[in-house]
Design brief:
Helices cover about 55% and strands about 5% of the residues. The protein is mainly α. β1 (about 50) and β2 form a beta hairpin.
């Protein structure tokens, strides 16, 4: 699966997926076969971190 390169577009995409389809980041990773560590690093570069309680990057 090809994810957006722009971190803000990626943020929007991932948060939408988490909100609408996946109860956790781990489930999203398994289902889409993506590297969530790379996503976390890219989003941390623009000051967003995953919050498991709200299941989104904030």
């Amino acid at each position: 699966m090809s994810l957006p390169d722009d971190p803000y577009i990626l943020l929007s995409y991932i948060n939408t997926q988490l909100r609408d389809f996946y109860p956790s980041l781990e489930e999203l990773e398994k289902s889409l076969d993506i590297d969530t560590e790379a996503i976390k690093m890219k989003l941390e570069s623009v000051d967003y971190k995953y919050d498991p309680e709200t299941n989104r990057f904030v």
